[in-house]
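Model the whole thing, not chain by chain.
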Amino acid sequence: MIAQSEVANRYLTMAKTFFGTSHPLFNAFGIEIDEIGKGRAVMRMPCSVALSDRHGGLHRGVVVTLLDTSCGLAIFSRLGDMRPIATIDLRVDFIREAPPGEDVRAEVECYAMQGDIAYVRGKAVVCQDDALLASVSGSFAVGTLGPAFDTTATKGTE
Amino acid sequence: MTAPGAEPLPAYCAGLSELQKQVLDDTPYVHFLGLKVSREDDGTTCYQLCFREEHIGNPLLRTFHGGILASFGEVVASLHVLEEAGMQQQQPLCTSLTFDYLRPAFSGTIRAVPRVVRSGRRFIVVSVDIFLDKSHVSTGRFIYAR
């Protein structure tokens, strides 16, 4: 699906630098990238007992974490680099709880960029049947505190 | 099942209602987060979260992940709703959250202060302020349906 062009490959390398084996949270959550590019990111994670609510489905806090992460990746793909970004605000509507045992997918697009602010919107669905779980919208500050995440990854490749 | 690195829930939850204890006990993700609940001398409930590697958002700055902060806020808000709204039977459903990130939440122990904004017949609105030491790092608003 992806990795068909060099650009897509570069995004994927970029994302894996950040979301790869070295990130403890993404490791613990088992987050995987399905799709990335042109301001859009699709990520998915498996249901796990440790991250579930009282009913055995992924906890809504976990869904928010997956959505927030996807927002970041969508912005990186629109920027074309990994300048540091920070969430300004996030709004999540919970349509329904994640069903027990079901994997969840987040689909987010960065639909606007104005000055140093990136705007995102998206949703979380059940992987198996695309049932809507939650919708998200938010804004992020671009070029915030700290070094870029791809300082080592893109050096010499431009 | 307890997540690796997660701390066992405190046995000193004195003063918590049965339903609150049940929710704490039965929610594996609360164990994963490592939420600490204790009672202050003045009777208020104190909610804390100690930074762990699994909470990392930005690995270069070692800050809490935005999703972890929102999770912490929601877990605290839902426990507070049980306490304040006098809910004994069932856990209210969170229908939406709005979360503002005010400052970077660097590694350390963060503290959540919940407050019921309005408790109506159908909906309960709760706000949660999160502090790192004295600095106000984020604030969230959560809506629950009874």
